[in-house]
Write a structure and sequence with these properties.
Bound molecules: thymidine-5'-diphosphate, magnesium ion
Radius of gyration: 27 Å
Number of helices: 12
Strand order of the largest sheet: 6-5-7-8-4-9-10-11-12
Shape: globular
CATH topology of the largest domain: Rossmann fold
CATH architecture of the largest domain: 3-Layer(aba) Sandwich
Strand content: 15-25%
Distance between the termini: 88 Å
CATH superfamily of the largest domain: P-loop containing nucleotide triphosphate hydrolases
CATH class of the largest domain: Alpha Beta
Length: 445
Amino acid sequence: MAKKSVARFRCADCGYVSLTQVGRCPGCGEWGTMTEETPLEAARGGIVQASRASAISSVDVLPEARISSGIGELDRVLGGGWIPGGVVLLGGEPGVGKSTLLLQACACMARAGRRVLYISGEESAGQLAMRGRRLGISERNVDLLCEPDLPSMLETARGYEFLVIDSVQSFRMDEGSGWAGSPGQVRAVASRAAEAAKSVGIPTVMVGHITKQGQIAGPKTLEHMVDVVLLFSGERTSRHRLLRAEKNRYGSTDELGIFEMTEQGLSPVVDPSRLYWSASDQSASGVAIGVTLEGSRPLLAEVQALSCATPFPYPKRTARGIEVNRLQLLLAVLERRCGIFSRSCDVYVNVAGGMAIQDPAADLAICAALASSLRDSPAACDTCFIGEVGLAGEVRPASQVHLRMREAARLGFGRAVVSSFNLPDASGIEIMGVSAISQMLEIIK
Ligand code: TYD
Ligand code: MG
């Protein structure tokens, strides 16, 4: 007797499986995300045929064909450009400039002779055209589609060479339940769009909204479905926008794209080091310059520290641009390895320009800024610091130190304090190798 298949209900958001129908997912607590799943065997009438696997060496590999987006900063983050059939998800806060960036990319590609289609569920064709005029876009090859029916629009996409869907949360498919933007609908829309992109082999970008927590709205499976996830971010008060890859099946996720929002749309920032640092010929105590690396791009970071005597037994440790734990660790190293005490002081650290430093090679600059503030003695303003600091007070080498040195030399620094464990060859800049943090303190005395 054929085995009777059992109905299963799966959460479109977290994947929790239940054998009974429930309104609220017991796994993630979301309402209306449980949908009935047809077991594979039931769908195929109980007959399942074994698939054939193939050896990895026997699989044909097509040469990687990159299609330039025409925007250098975007190409850098993508790893060289769009991939035919590759699906990219671009997330970001409302108003950060996602639609602007994609419309500009469409125009650049159209200028290169490609036919592009911009599907919008958020704005009317009139609004898009108005924005296009403002951006100076008058390309004939950019077509707009602003209708509610996504499947028919995806059919129209055949014959185009680049497709934008703005946004994945604004469309609704009949096959899923819920309103547009609900986890089930987002999954249905994204999988249909990704399927269309793969079958026609055109690069496709989907715009995704993000939640208050800064994550892409919708089920986590959305990010698994696509090949590349890009995040576009920027402070409301600043004109600068940062583009990073959260996931990239075709390239690195370390690269950073930097743009400036202007009246004529987004323009690339050509010399990003100058965003976070401005040359000064006056030394101030508590200021030290580090050279950090974002992917393959060196960026100067101005670390500022301020220490202030406090009568309270628990001094404050406040940091902006670095983690407070890192600040506490480096203060402990300075105390135990170099005898620089900060117990009776509140200590504040800030990285100028709103930059957030992850790179461990900025440790030496942070220590230099802290020591300079605690001793109230300025470090020379033509000196930069590159190296990671260990708990024993040793200065460890930084990665790609020659790239960092080249950037420091280009911006006119006269001296660089680096780890003596791998001294780089650099011309135009004096290199001072140190193996311990105490040697660095001798230099900036
Ligand atoms: P938009 O691309 O609509 O953002 P998103 O699609 O991420 O929601 O960008 C809207 C913002 O960008 C809006 O606040 C105005 C600003 N902007 C400019 O400053 N200059 C421009 O040329 C354009 C088109 C937009
Ligand atoms: Mg938009």
